[in-house]
Backbone:
């Protein structure tokens, strides 16, 4: 049962074939067996999970059925959870227990889900390999010598290894899609403003979005149904009519116009990834879609612009971690300045400090116009590129990442790590929705395909993803390494 | 060398919204430390701002009151610096696109002349908390009750040329803000604070001199004194061939000097950038028109009306409208007594004198407008004389009872009974034969002395007109 999709588990629960307590216990057992090796969870909430599962079973017995009632999930440790440790992968918050729930967390509570625990992540979501976490590397379930991707590496690994039925992630430059690609699962970054950011610890406020990481596009639709919607506590959340994202999953793709950006198939893309994506496109043509090669003229500027805007916002967002009110504080400060300096030097890891410094520099007097203002202009150009493209196509498809998961410790140079997100970053700069779904396997590692949609057109992305999953079984492939480790067949 | 002074003022006003600028916390003054600090005010991770539109309405209200351009699209920015009472590590303010743009206000100077002083802009921003350095043996306490309260920072053009003008500008600003009911604007409580930028230059030149900024002055009088002291300091330095350093200074009222606050510190780079957690605030002409339609009568218009409708002098009208509550008090007295001129005298002299002496606000006046109006009515209907009225007024301060009851109880009622007055007159005639003779000999002025004698004998209660008439008759 633990390797089932949410949709399947939901049906089994509704039919009374299994109870939430049973399925929750099964996941907890699986976590107990595998988390030591994978390090996907920072916190496991065994007792409260079983209590919630019991409550879900009782609710169902009382006729209070809902699609996600009793489904065990994991939250990325970036979401504030009341009375549960929320670390954001950082020493700075190694002792932080939030007094409140994030809106996303609250909505899953209202949906009757069961919280198994909090997943590991790159520190403050800054990283593409999950190697910057204060709580240690997460291992890729397909090959434990490889990274799971980041920053939502714990969530992607947990879903891939069946440590939970579904998980939340956040995506600022690719942090849902790239780990989903590396771990062979489905991940969706919604349009900016679709999901409330209240209670989600900010990295780069104008780019951050929470989204689902699941075993199928249908599951992602089920999760998005719960997560999305206006929240007055987040001024950037958008007031849109409530949608049922499962409603259009089965629309036929006949006549679908797929754009394929030249720039996403240029130098640097590995052959096996390109081949997998070309094969997938051929599959779409069989389903009645037309393929149109197109340009995203300014996409080569996206990484540079991102590494100005995101660190700039981060440099201010992370100022609140000063040792005054919560979180880490250095021992015996001699005065205020000493407290600030040592608290922040000790509390933040190298990558976070690097980005705070980049951001501080980019905003400094005399450099603002050259960096921040210029980056914002590029951002507009990139958005214009997409707007123009979407006049002629319905979705844009390409690889999520230039290659499959890389070896732990193999990218010591920060810039080479930053280039990991070359295909995903422009989407955040433009505020668009995009998914990554499994589309192949090479050398025993999954390959991710990115589907980018128009602003607030998640329904179309999920439809396109779901149809692919109806006709292929890449999303059902499992790592043999892990199933062997847990002794299952 | 002759010098001229250039002054620009930055005034921070606490907007009197019920809740804070970006959180639902109460803004009530004087609560125990940190009882009005929400998770957002404490800058807990993951919390986000939600803009309180009441602050916008108040800012626009101020803008239209001073005839300013209103920013149709105002943008919040982050101003970054570390301080323990600034929980987020940045202050949210408006840098390039403030809600209120260029406007002006007209001040009246001591010689009766008027001057228009430009307002560069007024922007909305959040207040910081308070650091308490006293009672924590080696540690500092942080009170975040004030953190996130809405402020309106009003920046003047550098068009003020002396301390007197600066104070006149501040007082006018204070009056308008009180009329608009957008802030208590109590300097002593910090709900109105003033930073003064002062520079001097050789008279007749146009280039601005290097300025010093005197921070956080909390009374009109100190603003005046601080400017005098700072101008003198700068003049001395320049005349000795020295240079003024651009810096922040503090006014020490005890020593009447300004002292440097941040000489050692490197210039702060606040790294402003647009606040990504908030959308730009967009308003249309309709919104501005609606706010404008709800403006109360402002001091300049009210002054003109007082002069016109009540035939008050420019000066009296100016005094009465300088305070909204005072003006409203006066209007009640004027209309209830039916004598605006007398009402103006009593309010601007006796009542204001009483309040100033006891350091009271109008609202706390022991004599309410209706009671003062009754007193004036009793003068007019000859129940008491103007002189006795002063005595009644004194009595009314301590005695909250009815004006007529006080007059009655103290036996201050004017004697109009002709029989009683006749007795007085006859007694005075009898006791002052010499003066009577003088009168009879044609020395008209003596009548004044004799009336005075009668009044004295009646302890001021006799009706002087009746006394006068009867004296002439009996002599």
Residues:
């Amino acid at each position: 049962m633990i390797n089932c999709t949410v949709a399947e588990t939901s049906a089994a629960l509704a039919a009374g074939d299994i109870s939430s307590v049973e399925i929750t216990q099964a996941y907890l057992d699986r976590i107990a067996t595998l988390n030591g090796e994978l390090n996907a969870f920072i916190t496991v909430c065994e007792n409260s999970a079983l209590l919630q599962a019991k409550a879900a079973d009782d609710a169902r017995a009382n006729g209070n059925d809902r699609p996600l009632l009793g489904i065990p999930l994991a939250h990325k440790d970036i979401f504030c959870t009341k009375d549960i440790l929320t670390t954001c992968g950082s020493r700075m918050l190694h002792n932080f227990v939030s007094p409140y729930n994030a809106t996303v967390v609250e909505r899953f509570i209202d949906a009757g889900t069961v919280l198994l625990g909090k997943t590991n992540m790159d520190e403050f979501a800054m990283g593409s390999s999950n190697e910057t976490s204060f709580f240690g590397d997460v291992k890729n379930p397909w090959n434990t010598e490889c990274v799971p991707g980041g920053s939502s590496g714990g969530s992607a690994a947990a879903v891939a290894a069946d440590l939970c039925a579904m998980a939340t992630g956040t995506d600022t430059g690719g942090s849902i899609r790239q780990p989903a690609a590396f771990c062979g699962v489905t991940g969706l970054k919604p349009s900016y403003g679709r999901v409330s950011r209240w209670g989600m610890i900010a990295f780069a406020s104008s780019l951050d979005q929470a989204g689902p990481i699941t075993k199928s596009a249908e599951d992602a639709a089920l999760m998005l149904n719960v997560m999305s919607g206006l929240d007055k506590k987040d001024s950037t959340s958008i007031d849109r009519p409530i949608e049922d994202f499962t409603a259009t999953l089965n629309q036929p793709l006949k006549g679908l116009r797929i754009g394929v950006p030249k720039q996403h198939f240029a130098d640097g893309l590995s052959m096996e990834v390109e081949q997998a994506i070309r094969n997938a496109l051929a599959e779409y043509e069989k389903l009645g879609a037309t393929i149109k090669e197109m340009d995203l003229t300014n996409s080569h500027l996206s990484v540079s612009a991102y590494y100005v805007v995101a660190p700039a916002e981060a440099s201010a967002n992370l100022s609140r971690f000063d040792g005054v009110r919560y979180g880490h504080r250095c021992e015996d400060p001699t005065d205020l300045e000493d407290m600030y300096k040592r608290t922040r030097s000790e509390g933040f890891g190298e990558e976070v400090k690097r980005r705070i410094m980049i951001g501080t520099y980019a905003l400094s007097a005399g450099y603002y116009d050259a960096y921040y203002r210029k980056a914002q202009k590029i951002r507009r150009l990139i958005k214009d590129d997409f707007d123009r493209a979407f006049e002629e196509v319905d979705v844009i498809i390409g690889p999520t990442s230039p290659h499959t998961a890389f070896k732990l410790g193999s990218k010591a140079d920060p810039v080479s790590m930053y280039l990991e997100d070359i295909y995903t970053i422009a989407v955040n700069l433009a505020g668009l929705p995009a998914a990554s779904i499994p589309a192949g396997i090479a050398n025993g590692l999954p390959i991710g395909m990115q589907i980018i949609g128009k602003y607030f057109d998640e329904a179309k992305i999920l439809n396109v993803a779901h149809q692919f999953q109806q006709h292929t079984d890449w999303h059902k492939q499992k790592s043999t390494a892990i199933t062997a480790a847990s002794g299952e067949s | 060398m002759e010098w001229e002074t250039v002054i620009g003022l930055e005034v921070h006003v606490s907007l009197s919204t019920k809740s804070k600028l970006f959180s639902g916390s109460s803004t009530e003054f004087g609560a125990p430390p940190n009882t009005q600090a929400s998770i957002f005010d404490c800058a807990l991770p993951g919390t986000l701002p939600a803009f309180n539109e009441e602050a916008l309405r108040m800012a626009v209200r101020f803008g239209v009151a001073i005839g300013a351009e209103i920013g149709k699209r105002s943008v919040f920015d982050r101003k970054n610096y570390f301080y323990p009472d600034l929980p987020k590590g940045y202050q949210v303010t408006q840098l390039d696109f403030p809600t209120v743009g260029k406007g002006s206000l007209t001040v009246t100077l001591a010689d009766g002349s008027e001057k228009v002083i430009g307002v560069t802009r007024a922007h909305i921003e959040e207040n910081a908390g308070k650091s308490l350095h006293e009672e924590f043996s080696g540690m500092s306490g942080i009170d975040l009750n004030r953190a996130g309260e809405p402020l309106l920072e009003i920046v003047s053009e550098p068009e003020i040329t002396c301390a007197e003008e600066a104070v006149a500008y501040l007082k006018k600003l204070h009056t308008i803000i009180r009329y608009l009911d957008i802030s208590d604007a109590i300097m002593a409580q910090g709900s109105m604070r003033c930073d003064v930028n002062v520079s001097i230059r050789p008279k007749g030149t146009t280039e601005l001199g290097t300025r010093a900024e005197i921070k956080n002055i909390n009374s009109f009088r100190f603003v005046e004194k601080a400017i005098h002291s700072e101008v003198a300091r700068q003049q001395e330095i320049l005349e000795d061939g020295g240079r003024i350093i651009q810096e922040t200074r503090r006014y020490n009222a005890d020593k009447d000097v300004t002292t440097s606050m941040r000489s050692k510190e490197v210039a702060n780079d606040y790294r402003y950038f647009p606040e990504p957690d908030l959308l730009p605030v967009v308003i249309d002409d309709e919104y501005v028109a609606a706010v404008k339609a709800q403006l109360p009568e402002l001091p300049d218009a009210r002054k003109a009306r007082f002069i016109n409708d009540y035939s008050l002098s420019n000066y009296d009208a100016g005094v009465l409208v300088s305070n909204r509550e005072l003006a409203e008090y006066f209007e009640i007295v004027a209309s209830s007594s039916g004598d605006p001129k007398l009402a103006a005298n009593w309010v601007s002299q006796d009542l204001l004198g009483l309040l100033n002496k006891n350091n009271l606000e109008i609202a706390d006046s022991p004599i309410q407008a209706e009671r003062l109006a009754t007193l004036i009515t009793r003068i007019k209907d000859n129940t008491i004389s103007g002189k006795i009225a002063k005595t009644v007024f004194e009595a009314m301060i301590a005695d909250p009872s009815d004006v007529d009851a006080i007059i009655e109880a103290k036996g201050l009622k004017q004697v109009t009974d002709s029989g009683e007055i006749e007795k007085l007159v006859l007694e005075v005639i009898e006791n002052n034969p010499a003066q009577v003779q003088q009168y009879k000999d044609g020395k008209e002025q003596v009548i004044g002395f004799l009336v005075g004698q009668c009044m004295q004998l009646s302890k001021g209660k006799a009706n002087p007109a009746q006394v006068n008439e009867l004296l002439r008759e009996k002599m």
Summary: DSSP finds 15 helices and 15 strands in chain B. The mean pLDDT of chain B is 92. The two ends of chain B are 74 Å apart (CA to CA). Chain B has three domains: 3-290, 297-409, 418-474.
